[in-house]
Automatic annotation (TrEMBL), chain A:
Domain of life: Bacteria
Keyword Transmembrane helix: yes
Protein name, entry field: Branched-chain amino acid transport protein AzlD
Organism for this UniProt entry: Oceanobacillus sojae
Residue intervals passing through the bilayer: 6-29, 41-59, 65-83, 90-108
Keywords: Membrane, Transmembrane, Transmembrane helix
InterPro entries: Brnchd-chn_aa_trnsp_AzlD
Entry coiled-coil feature ranges: none
Automatic annotation (TrEMBL), chain B:
Signal peptide segment: none
InterPro entries reported for this sequence: Brnchd-chn_aa_trnsp_permease (IPR011606)
Name listed for the protein in its UniProt record: Branched-chain amino acid transport protein AzlC
One Gene Ontology term, aspect cellular component: plasma membrane
One matching Pfam family: AzlC
Membrane topology: Multi-pass membrane protein
Annotated source species: Oceanobacillus sojae
Annotated gene: azlC
Family of the protein in this entry: Belongs to the AzlC family.
Residues passing through the membrane, by range: 12-34, 46-66, 72-93, 132-158, 164-181, 210-228
Amino acid sequence: MMTITQQIIIVASVVAGTLLTRFLPFMIFKSDKPTPKYIKYLGYVLPPAVFGLLVVYSLKNVTVTSLAGFLPELLAIGLIIILHCWRRSMLLSIAGGTIFYMFLVQSVF
Amino acid sequence: MSLENHLSTLKYAFPKTLPILAGFAFLGIAYGVYMHSLGFQPIYAILMSILIFAGSMEFVAGSLLLGAFNPLSAFLLTLMINARHLFYGISMLDKYKGTGKKKIYLIYGMCDESFVINNTSRIPSNIDKGWFMFYVTLLNQIYWVSGATIGSLFGSMITFNTEGLEFVMTALFVVIFLDQWLKERNHISSVIGIAASVLCLILFGTEHFIIPAMLIILIFLTLIKKFITKHEVIS
């Protein structure tokens, strides 16, 4: 078991690492200077790719070895797509998909 | 800005954060319960959710505290798990410009969810952009810290069946991705994001796929730069 001081140092290391990943781009590319064209380009094209990465990241524990490992996710995402194309309401799509998913994992699979 | 303007900005920001309220209340409580189950006093979950404010890293930090004392490896592990923030920062460089002192907090609180809301919301001209993003970030952190606090204090008393509620975060990311897909002129970046991530997930597994996926995304987007800039106007 660590001492309190050791625990504080560990938490501080995690805080420092997190701060670095968040502040680094802003420290390199200061706001009083024009952002380099290549970085501007990245800032423009990165978000769609990052959203894709986040979708996969949030589904990383899905498995294809059993139906219960992927079918609830697949069906719920299907419903989200239908709801969203129909109404374009973010809240309706998210709430509908989540409630349907909870029903599937609790009562069906 | 007047109090009235603050209230109208807050009123505009709040509905956008509702899915995060649901997700963070649940995941925050789960984090508090998890820290409680590891044997930590409530103050640990509360302080770590305020100071680290990066969901998955906080769970990892809980287990780090029970392992051997190795701050350097904790630091490096954090850099790896949170490397995706670098992409958020690059994407928000211009959007955070001109936000004054609030910028420090906007960067400090830039979690996955605050990034997607602040990056995609179309803010009407009568609403101050900087304060809108500030309130989105602040509300999200309040939800997370409240969840962690409740979970670490009362987690063992929750009895209704919450199985599957964590899907609300997946649903949010799917909807953001879909919304982007429906309005973008070409799908190159979206397709690269999904394809690179799935490929790296298969090749490197759930624990190590993010950084290779980020590298592939970066390489591809750099390679197609000429093609994109020729066809699209960069504002």
